[in-house]
Batch of 4 targets.
Target 1
Amino acid sequence: MAYRQAIDATSYVFGDLRDLLAKATPPRSGDRLAGIAAGCAEEMIAARMALADVPLQQFLNEAVIAYEDDEITRLIVDSHDARALAPVASLTVGAFRDWLLSDAATGVALAELARGLTPEMVAATSKLMRNQDLIQVAKKCEVTTRFRDTIGLRGRMSARLQPNHPFDDARGITASILDGLLLGSGDACIGINPASDDPAVIGGLVRLLDSIIARFDIPTQSCVLTHVTTTLTLIEQGFPVDLVFQSIAGTEAANRSFGVNLALLREAHEAGLSLKRGTVGNNVMYFETGQGSALSANAHHGVDQQTCEARAYAVARAFDPLLVNSVVGFIGPEYLYDGKEIIRAGLEDHFCGKLLGAPLGVDVCYTNHAEADQDDMDNLLTLLAAAGVTFIMGVPGADDVMLNYQSTSFHDALYLRDLFGLRRAPEFDDWLVRIGLAGTDFRLAGNAGQLPDFAAKLIA
Amino acid sequence: MTPARVALGRAGSGLPTEALLDFTLDHARARDAVHAAFDVAGLTASLGVLGLEPVQVASLVPERRDYLRRPDLGRICAADSRHLLESRARSSCDLVLIVADGLSPTAVKLHAADVAARLLPLLKEAGVAVGHAVIARGARVALGDEIGEILRARLVVMLIGERPGLSVPDSLGAYLTYDPKVGRTDAERNCVSNIHGSGLGSVEAAFKIAWLVREALARQVTGVALKDESTEAMVARLAKPV
């Protein structure tokens, strides 16, 4: 159906819900590239005014991508929990925003609501919110997951240790792992993006991580971020796989371009569960997402990139993941042009993911052809920590020498811990104290220049 | 062991000043590489020395910020460039060599003429004539499809500046597309990437490109169907005394 908004003498008409959502979206280059953005600032606000009056119920009647055409739409519709939505079912998008900001929307209320919300409802609401609203509401959400440690508890923030190497050299990777552990990173996971897609190399990396984690009894989990079919093969061959990784997107066609569908993800999830390698829980999936991926695969169906991204979280939550990571600035300036657009997108993704019940972390990052620098990343990092982000990346010196982009560093995590008093996953914090890397206050012990016993062993 | 920035030390929870400045210098260099002016006159002169007479064309991109935001425009020839190419098109030719700014004009300035100088004798030896040379501004890789189609090339080789990394701001890539025409996908191209001082040298790069040119023309295909097996041939060739 069409949506209308009059402003003075101008009557703005939006063809359907998809068009209304796209036009209401804060400016970003990807939506302009797709040709679906508002033509002027006034049209954008007209779209938001019209969107504010749309009842949440309308999102259950009008799909942005047809049910018949897209298995993600079918997943969203078929798994919708109408009873969970009941407390806010009569509200419009605008009234729902007000409710989210109110004291009635407690952490418990939001957790109970999650399965009643569709990604489109959540994306729509975010488009009416300022950055402070996105931070405030996300902060109320608590999404907790477990494998060998407990991630997402209030007052805590985890970090993925990302020890990538341009040609997967085991010693080089070990050096980066050591650096990260010494700086207290790695409680979300130790996760390598391999340069190679050769299963033999990937298998070697899986064993390397397993041996380090087992040898020093580190309460964390390993992941080698390769295609899910490769991981399935490794599981069949008996490799010690902890987390099963896959990049996912919010449309069936975009997932097809990644070489996956829901059935394959289900198979991978079950294979991961069957290994029973978790000690305090069995959330075995690690997903990565990012605004613009559907457009870049020419698979967006005219849906704006932020709504597509929220739909990816609906895919993620169907598989009880340990970690969901929005790699927000990786895709480049044709989707998110500058620091302002990256910061906005990072806060939106975190808000949408958390409201939908996904354990959302953010790879706060940028490429060298984007109009962004470390100051922009400091801003986003600080805002996300204020919003209660589940985890961030820890890359040596923030410089990923394999993927050639800038992320966040082990130091950045320390900065946030100092600034906000954020602790790590409790099991990991205890481990750091036990091996002498942290004091009883869980802050890193002073660097006396002498390697702890375990570190000396690791590089021997 | 690793080029990663490990063992930086710390100042409180932050980076020590030296590590901070090292990082910002590398980022500054990468930024400069992205936004460097494309020296078309200098490039024309250095290709001229090699006996090439390059045609100068541009995409629809009006300026650099549009280039970064609108990759679609970087894949389409400007109208006057198209007319110029049409006026040059003759009967079909084996090869069109395109040098394009891409994401690092710095890489093109530092390495393109050198690679071309090493490549031309190898092509001559293989009996492959360069039908046209083209310098393209505001170009994405796919611009070569339209250029090659207008010039009726059997094969296009495009030398183009790659996205600058923090450690390497001047990496050049070479993209080969057989039977170029608008709408080709990246799966239908071969790429020799990472051509720079501390990566693939211009001698090795030229050898790989020439090997791929020969094989592409012989097998009438580029892309996933043409695997780069040049390493073995290169080892044999470069081991021979010159």
Target 2
Amino acid sequence: MFNYTLRRILLAIPTLLFIALIIFLLLELSPGDPMAEMPLTIPPEVREQMRLALGLGEPWFVRFYKWLYMFTIVEPSHMLANMTGIESLAVEGQRIISFQTRSPVADIIAQRLPQTLWVVGLSYIFGILIAVPIGVYSAYKQYSWFDQVGTFVSMVGFSLPTFFTGPLLMLIFSVWLGWFPIIYDTTLVVDSFGNFLLQLRQMAMPVFVLTLYNTAQIVRFMRAAMLDNMTQDYVRTARAKGMTERVVVLLHVLRNSMIPVVTVIALGIPTIFTGAIITENIFRVNGLGQLLIIAIYASDFPMVLTLSVVFAILIVAFNLIADLLYAILDPRIRYD
Amino acid sequence: MTDTVSFRAPRNQWWDVWDQFKTHKGALVGSVVFIAILLFCFVGPTLWPYDATYIDIRSRNQGFSLAHPFGTDQLGRDIFARMMKGGQVSLAVGVVAMVLSVFIGTAIGVMAGYFRRIDGLLMRMTDLFLALPLLPLLLVMSMLFRQPLSSAFGVETGMFLLIVVAIAITSWMRTARVVRGDVLALKEREYVLAGRSIGTPPRRLILRHILPNVLSPVMVSATLMLATAIITESALSFLGMGFPPDFPTWGRLVADGVDYLQQYPSRSMLPGVFISLVVLSVNYIGDGLRDALDPRIRGR
């Protein structure tokens, strides 16, 4: 197990390097110019100097190496220094600077992260909490009206794109009923009960949209896993021993069915960050997804590169975690 | 006492598949809805008098009427015609991207499953693609190649090529994995061994004996791919990274309509409903196909 983990982590390093290189080269080929936003009155030689100041004068491999050094050494050290409060931990040197704001990319990401985590993370947790009981009951009473309705709703939730459900909810709850604000106010500071309610109200719609989608996906897996297990021999044995249905379903079947579902949930966690790009854009939640879109529009290469690689790290890490969880939960699986 | 053994006339297995498919109510309704939308988008424009890009500024922002069943937009363009045109683009992108992606996925899956020497390499590549953050990458790609392709092939063809290829090369991985798994199992079967022992070259063994046997997982993943491709295209258009603004696609129409959500809610809801209907019906067709193509379920 330990050897396997180590081997996977070692394998992940070249994978991530390669992904970073692909994205870097893609951006390198891109026709977008970070100086496009500058006034046209700037004389060409000054413009050239500004390009050099942004670090665009050197060949691509030098810049890639520098970015890599900053991403792997400088930025983590600053993060560590911030977390522990020991300033001396931070490595001296240039940090990754956003072309748009001229401030370190990591600081902007750290500012945006809580918004994404709250909205998207909450919807994922809600999704799991709602989906598991529905999936269990649907499978237990297969072909009952509850199951029929449940599978239909999960199919609908799975098929409706978030860029449709988002405006639909806006129309119903903001335009017609006027319950929730259309635009997410990110400057809101929760310091009183009234503001807390306001925060809840503005989070309601984005969380609902994402919860619907997450729930639909997990219900499908949960139901399928339960159905696979319900017909197994050990279930009949448990019933024959005279165990109550409660024990059979909730203790025996559910525990075995959770094995694939837990891995699916783990695999889905990176999409908390990447999949919410559209939802964040609809509701103007200024989280990581919106940050990425704005950065792409503004040709803010360091920001796009850093964000994409962070997403890639999350995906690789949670793939590994899902595989390890599978082995831990299911003793029949051996990796060595 | 005579046993009456009823022999069924031999018939094509696709009839059995169809019989099973018919019993899946969702799949049947899904097919009807899907075909209706196909007809609406591809036959509709030949019968409908208005063009999707015809601007009639005097009759702008009209509500539902007989002349304009879905009303007109802020430039007086007929929304009914724009929905048909937008559907053509969305469906065409979805179908072509699906075919391309399934082709790539099947080719790589069969190669990796059949030839052990390149298995490791191809599967590492698949894992690498699975680790890519796809939506960000798609956005970057559509930003990047927009200009060169538009100038080389014209705006519409260029964007079509770009989006189709971008969706295809970011979505073939699942098909490849499923196909590889099946090919690995099929390769050990006796009929493949028999074929190899009489000297069948790998190319013919793959095309004639292995491919027909992986057809059912490929078809199921093709329907799922179609749904994902349509959603991805619409999402790109919705974010403004797809086709140019004056070129209607369903995703674009939703995005344009959101600006008028308060005054004219139907403008963003209608294309949204159409996208959802197509995706829902395609997913149901996929469900029905999965059951119909599984010989263990069929005939029960």
Target 3
Amino acid sequence: MSRRKKTYAEKHFDFLPSASELTGRFIKDNADLWETLRNPIDFQENFTNLAYPRQIALVDLLHDITYNKVTISPAKMQEKLLDLSADCLEMIGWMCGSFYDAGNIYYPLSDDEKKLVRMECYGSIDARREHELSSYYKFFCKNENRGKFRLKDYDLSQSPMWRVFNQFESFRTIAPNVRRYMYRNGINPDALKVMSVSDFCDVIHKSFAKTPESMKALFLKTGYKKKFVKSFMREQGKTLYNRLIANGLDERKVVSLCRRMAQSGCCDIATLVVTEINFTPRIIKDLRNTPYYSEDYKVGDKIPEELMDRMFLADKENILVARDENGMPLSKDDMPCFEVHHKNAVKFANDDDYLAKVNYPTNLVLVEHEMHRAYFHGFDDTDEVAKNNEMYFSRINMYDSNVALLDGFNFEISCEWDKNSSLQKRIKQDKQNVVNYYEMQLQRFNNIPEIADRYHIEYSKRDLSNERRNLIGMLQDKINVSAEDLQIFTDWIVPDSKAQKSINKAAGKNLKLTKKNKGNEL
Amino acid sequence: MNTFLDEIKGKKFAHGEKLEAEALIIAQKVLHNMGLGMIPKSYADFLHHYNGMKFDGSYLFGATVDDDLDIIDKNEQMKKPENTILLGYNDFDLLCYDYTLGEYLIIDRNDFKVTDKYGDVELDYALSKIFNF
């Protein structure tokens, strides 16, 4: 058996802790954690004094006690431990500006809204499968139904579903690309009125994909996740540098990480190449036979940024790799692995406000990978409520919008985002473009009969019935549309008695509509 | 349409050690003992190319000793919907395989709602959705 196979086998068979061992963890290997726990008065100080990995271990332990209900006898001790762990968790939350939000009822976002949030965050869009596109859009994309139109005919404000995209700065910037694509491909502008979110995704994907076969297309040069990291480094890069140096990290590692974060907005450690800061004899020797060499380079001099950029672009950075005294590349085991975390869940950000703010820098924070897993997502929980689409939801949220990086539980770096003029401009514009997704969907549905009749598009009864059922469900959850619109809509879809009954109930049975209202719309 | 492997060609990311048959069997056995289904064949085929992958907050798991990518550890540690095996995650979503339906699912990490479903032959779409560069 090879050594590698044996290692994997050992990991999961020889060292798998038994249930009894799990209970033993309180006193066996975790004496320091136990000491920290049993001293509630000095908890904050003792917790701060623990090394970072032990802090994570303690959080894991508290999680087990509180949520996995690790059994301890006698029962009284279990109760005490539960109280104690809940208090300690609250204290840890307070130390890093967070709180445990549990037991409240929320409405999940629609799938379409979720997808837009992800696209903006990554700046990329996935190819759509044929069955994800609406039959109306597919009709207008057929060669025989294409035509010659003027660019000015493509008024995106006429499209209910584009207005959902238009809430985000990123999509507003690519609106000209969407119009141009449709114009160049002769897609009838009337399609805009009935296109779905997936249809627009198809247009965006095709506008930006390197080849039609690409699975993913980048529609932004830099997604908002990376933009956040770059902005942070512009504002507080020096502070992060000082912090990492103060932690005793090799300067070469710190410089390489900060450089990468500032230039590409990427924090990934696994793919990071740690380079030397100054020329070494080895580097000069290796450079000598390359086009990058210059007689001016001397051992001990600082490696110019411009040379580094050129070598990284050409994938030749390995020549600059930093090595230890044995000539081996430096280990990256002690380097912090930061990840971007959303301070408040996507749906919370939209609950009483507007969707676009979820990817604002004020809602993002850099946290170390283990803290991200064990603390910020360690307490996520969800439980569907019987009625409608409501959910109970538990999550660690953060209340300080200016905290931009957490290095462990007791060190933070903040940015004054409220003084950032481009963010203020973005907020102002976003607020002007807020729409309600369900209202837009309703408008789209109202447009369908008119467009379908005009172009003799066959109704797919099954599609229509599915869409109707979905929309009824959504309307039931969030009655933000006017009662009249709701009634007009239900009249149009020729409701069956069950659907009518549930809609009336959802709308609070306050539907007082005149015949005139009904007749005007359809 | 390209495959996921075509898409990631030339990109830099970290991955687990080369998959060995015994490691896959161990993973299947332990997952089974945990009351979960088997790793689907299409995903196991993918693991022969890359035995788990990670880059900047996106993870695909494998039968590997890398703690961040170990499919067994992650199925023990992370919350996931019932009747599913967790295969990966990113900032927003989980990639799970529903072994009762035989479908890959993209699931919102916050509310556990399924946002996309992919058949066995559509694994490339699911991988592309989770793994972001």
Target 4
Amino acid sequence: MQVRKLAAFAALPVVAALALSACGGKGGDSASSSNGVVRIGIAEPQFLTPADTNETSGSQVLAALFAPLVDYDENNKPYEVQAESITTTDNKTWTIKIKDGWTFHNGEKVTSDSYINAWNAAAYKGSSQNAYFFSQIEGYDAVAPADAKATPTAKTLSGLKKVDDTSFTVTLTAPFSDFKTMLGYTAFYPLPAAAFDSDGAVKKDFAEAPIGDGPFKMDGTWQHDAEISVTRYDAYKGTAPHISGADFKIYQQPSAEYADLLAGNDDVMKQIPTENLTTADGDLGDRFLQSPASTFQFLSFPTYDKSFANVDVRRAISMAIDRQQIVDQVFKGSQKAAYSFVSPVVAGYRDNTCGANCEYKPADAKTLYQQAGGPAKLTISYNADGGHKDWVDATCNQLKANLGVECVGQPEAKFADLLTKVQKKESVGVFRMAWVMDYPSMEDYLGPLYTTKGSSNYYGYSNPDFDKLVQDGREAKTSDEAIAKWQQAEDILAKDMPVMPLRFGQNSYGISTKVKNVEIDLYNRVNLTKIEYVG
Amino acid sequence: MSDFETAAASELHSATPGLQGEPGAPGQPQTMESATKVRSAAADAWRELRRNALFWIALAIVLVILVMACWPSLFTSADPNSCSLNNQMAGPSAGAPFGYDFQGCNVWAHAVYGTRNSLLIGAGAAILAGVLAMVIGMIAGFFGGWIDAVVSRIVDIVLAIPLLLGAIVLMKRIPSDSQSLRLTALIGILGVLGWTTAARVVRSSVITAKQQDYVSAARMLGAGNGRIMWRHIMPNVLAPFLVIITIALGAFIASEATLSFLGVGLKPPSISWGSDIATARVHMREKITPLAVPSVFLALTVLAFIMLGDAIREAFDPKLR
């Protein structure tokens, strides 16, 4: 009797587990896998509207739902997808023709209005995250006055003109040779009329189930912090994907996703956490893959802080860091040591533009640091949610040993917290940043980051010569001329050292046994057209 | 008068509640006549303790930890803060009996130097909590009435705040650049949130003690409240109070480690076992010693204080003999 009672109690949790797993609904492996749905891990997207999405999780989902005007080939040259042709004679006025007969997931036709309305909404008041990308279009100042409180004098960009249903023109304020390249960015997706309210703004609940024109459509709505499901859109006119759908599983913790990948509950993990890199080879074998990425990791000096005002202090700190050792031992070779300010993935990259300032010379660094009177205590601020502790601590240990200073890593909960402190000009010491390019152009590594009005110039760097060279490059007639100007601008950075390059990233990803042909592009997105399900 | 008082005082030390009626046991009125022959409760307890092996083990560990906290350089000649990737995950060598961790820090030196902060916070919080508990418990138990009612409700309220949760919320507000400030704040927060159980013990001991005949006698002889509390009641409260505070000291050390593990306690460059464990955790599958060494240090320290408290409690409580 006693034994039987115990057995009954022991059975309870089993029953409960069975009952609970039954609640999972469509969660079962065999159910979702048999029809060719792949599961891809992402983080919770900030937004799912093209105008606001600028992080990798959101752009991954949008890449499934929307078709871009242009995409990029292996050499990062743009080729037309939804666009029929993109032409210009003077780099200032661009004519965009789109392919006829494409439809949104709700059956609506994709017309030139779909683009014009979406772009006008994104630029209006300059309040969307990606408004910066429309600032080169004529009439931007009227819809988004520099003074945020002023009322815009226009609702639409005067530079956008409809020609007919399948073509429109874009007039820029100044010639920009890489405008066609820029059009592949998330911000330039079209939106259906169903997305707008009567005022021409995007509806608030549109992001819960975006309607796009891409190879996949939403299956249900965005289940926050849980999952976003998409299924194949059969009326898609572009290259049809091999899979019948994708479940984007949302993870809060990379370590949790890694465990799921090992357990076979996740098919693609886009970025293996640094701490798991040492064991990933053994855990995954040939399912552990790497591909180039456009990430550029660097440490920035707050130039508003007197301690770092002297360029020799910045040079000395840069020379005291052994980049290769950190790459080899902390990242296990999964990233590349950076000695330039521009990623090797874009045209115009030159190796070692940083020169002597990035060379590891501990003895010289120490002498230089003492002569320049560098601070006795250094802090490196970083965001704690990104897995940066290991390399920041290692960097600090190198600075301690090589410069004879105190050095501590200072974690901030989120990257936004760090940026807020920087914007208030609080003392944060040296702080980490990273840049993933928006579109494959050398300009994208220079303009937003270091020009005086750059959207991501958080360190207060300002050099009129640099600003001029970047602008000259934009206005140059040919790409080669542009690159020559931008390379001169990069040389100024190497002299001024507002930041120190550390590493170029790579996608280190893991896949399950159920998928093949998994490619992750330079923007850390899985190529959903190529991925195949093998079961 | 003075004769009586000394006798009463020495006798009162032994007036542990619950001893009444035990033949030959101290605490009964007749001991006044034969005070020299009968051992006091403290002496009795000491006799018990001496025979308790656990007590000696716990005491030995506590002593070693104390020495380690005061003079860490006796145990290691390495500098815990000099780490180099050249030593990453290196095996044991001279001066580093447990090898090096992922950042190339000496695991043993780190653990040894972590002792001071743990002990400092544990002891500091225990003293603060002890003082608060003693004063508040004494006042509530002795005066009774509405004072007791108010104080008891306050105790209930503080008791309802979970120690860790409260500490996490408060520690988040402490700036992270001043390490001495964080240490003081930890002591303050743990002490202020952790005094309640001890206060309850003190209060109930005071209530039992104040009903004793000798307290009435002292009062009739004209002793004031302060004198009665200090000389007649306090000695009776001391034993259970010390027991609970010793155990609390261990618990405070564990709490500090938990907070540091969660990243809201001490932060580098301060060395703490908790943050060492958190750092080593992610590389656990590659090498276990960086995780094991601070964990064992922490477990042994907490265990030692709890065992010590337990041994003392057993020695003082005749029912457990």
